[in-house]
Amino acid sequence: MKTCTFVTGNPNKVIEVEGPVIVEDSALEFNAMNKLPGPYIKQFLELLGNDGLNKLLHSYSDKTAEAVCTFAFTTGPSIDPITFQGRLEGQIVSARGPPVFGWEPIFEHEGETLAEMAHEKKNGLSHRYQALLKFQEWLAAQELDI
After folding, report:
1. How confident is the model over 86-132, as pLDDT tens digits?
2. Is residue 85 part of a domain?
3. Please, are residues 129 and 123 in contact by the beta-carbon 8 Å criterion?
4. How far apart are CA 41 and CA 23, in angstroms?
5. Which long-range contacts link 6-11 to residues 24+ away (Cβ below 8 Å)?
6. Residue 17: helix, strand or coil by DSSP?
7. Is 8 left (phi over 0), alpha (psi -120 to 50) or beta?
8. Can you give the pLDDT at residue 2?
9. Is the pTM of this model over 0.70?
10. Domains in the chain, number
């Protein structure tokens, strides 16, 4: 059986990896702000909170946004990664629902914020689910020895 190395935010740990690697990142793109905060959402959220993120769009009529998740996979260090992306359209609203996970209380999709949705519903339509489904479908069609 091949080994699997778990790599988190430690940049030195990735040096040890010689085999397959999967990475994931999420972003929140405000259409009125030319896709910002995008991949910097974590930093924006830490500095501004959900209320501050909402205030960024105060002077814009366009409150639409996209939640984006990207998985990248490579079989080894010298192989270019393949990416799989999922997107969920919505809009930025005043916070509703339990503040359990990041910006979910301000991202509304079809009348409900992600924080208000039942986990089963959210997990079946989320940007992360869509990206992971694409990766799973691709992986099932491959003949990889990993």
Report:
1. 999 999 999 999 988 899 999 999 999 999 999 999 999 999 999 99
2. yes
3. yes
4. 17
5. none
6. coil
7. beta
8. 60
9. yes
10. 1
